[in-house]
Write a structure and sequence with these properties.
Elements lengths: L10 H8 L7 E2 L16 H5 L4 H15 L4 E5 L1 H8 L8 E5 L5 H8 L3 E5 L10 E5 L11 H8 L4 E5 L21 E6 L1 H4 L7 E5 L1 H11 L6 H11 L2 H24 L3 E6 L2 E5 L3 H10 L2 E2 L1 E3 L2 E8 L4 H12 L1
Parallel strand pairs: 1-11, 3-4, 3-5, 5-6, 6-7
Antiparallel strand pairs: 2-8, 7-8, 9-10, 10-13, 12-13
């Protein structure tokens, strides 16, 4: 597979092809929570002052408590910020990525000079200087027990576990098991589960030496004041997190029912997105696009289509009508 850097969220491409103002479109091409965390009122200082070390440290403490880890927590500009930095954590040699998966991992590694192979089975990662596992996987939802990943860490030089979609399923996380593990980097996305992707906030959880290197590469102000303030509040709101997990599970089942009625077969996914087998994925995407609904297909498959969750009831009704169409 080539490392084409195609993405969901590319509504510009949909509009270029099909027209319409952005407000006319229902964008289901991402896995971003459509019912976001209520943005707290920000202090004037969050917008006018450079973040301090104390600000960053407080955000890291909030993230560590939320993720249940004693590892170092490095705030970055989204999980993508960590993905861009990971290739420079070790000498560039052989990297293996468990796939098919989010294409930015392989693309960032190749751009930095790594020899990258995508493998289909976890056992094939053994012996790599750097190995990448997305858990749960995007787009198929494949899951790995944290104990199995911890064992895998002993078979590779450095293990990167991308947990960008793990918030709805805390039991999948390797974060609580990182004590004394020096060669694992766990990536967490803030924007997907909390629905505030525009803040560009994410975290790398890892041992001291790796954390020190990441902080050096990130520089003194890797995230904004608004991201720090909003992140601290949201990460500490256990009641909202619990209620959101329950709602996402219900909504994922609701989306599965709509897809099944349309003749699609569930491949897998997470509570934030679902992937289906459609006989002609490009045709299905085109049909929904004519109704101003944007979805995600993949350059390596003619039958896979991925949808995020609608939010308001009118969006659910709109999708249901288009699928019946």
């Amino acid at each position: 597979m080539t490392a084409l850097r195609d993405h969901g969220g590319n509504l510009d491409a949909a509009r270029l092809c099909h027209g319409g103002a952005a407000a006319e479109w229902l964008d289901l091409s991402t896995g971003i929570n459509p019912v976001p965390y209520p943005m707290p009122v920000l202090s004037a200082r969050a917008l006018t002052a450079l973040p301090t070390r104390e600000d960053m440290a407080a955000l890291s403490v909030a993230a560590a408590a939320c993720y249940g880890t004693n590892a170092e927590v490095v705030p970055l500009a989204g999980a993508q910020g960590a993905i861009q930095a990971v290739p420079y954590l070790a000498a560039r040699d052989v990297a293996r990525v468990l796939g098919p998966t989010y294409n930015e991992h392989a693309a960032a590694l190749r751009a930095a000079g790594w020899a990258v192979a995508e493998v289909a089975e976890t056992a094939a990662l053994a012996g790599a200087d750097l190995a990448v596992v997305v858990n749960p996987n995007n787009p198929c939802g494949r899951r790995h027990a944290p104990e199995a990943l911890l064992a895998l860490a002993g078979q590779v030089g450095c293990l990167v576990v991308d947990e960008s979609f793990a918030d709805p399923e805390p039991g999948l996380s390797l974060a609580p098991m990182l004590d004394g593990v020096g060669n694992v980097v766990v990536l967490r996305s803030f924007g997907k589960f909390y629905g505030l992707a525009g803040l560009r906030l994410g975290f790398a959880l890892c041992g001291g030496a790796l954390a020190k290197r990441l902080r050096e590469m990130a520089g003194p102000w890797p995230v904004s004041g608004p991201a720090i303030e909003a992140g601290r509040v949201a990460l500490g709101d256990a009641d909202w997190q619990r209620a959101t997990r329950e709602r996402l599970v219900r909504d994922a089942m609701r989306l599965d029912a709509l897809a099944e009625a349309a003749g699609w077969r569930l491949i897998g996914g997470t509570p934030l997105f679902r992937s289906y087998h459609a006989p002609e994925a490009a045709e299905a995407q085109e049909r929904l696009a004519r109704a101003r609904i944007w979805t995600r297909i993949f350059p390596w498959s003619g039958t896979w289509i991925r949808l995020g969750l609608p939010g308001p009831e009118e969006d659910w009704a709109r999708l249901a009508a288009a699928l019946r169409g």
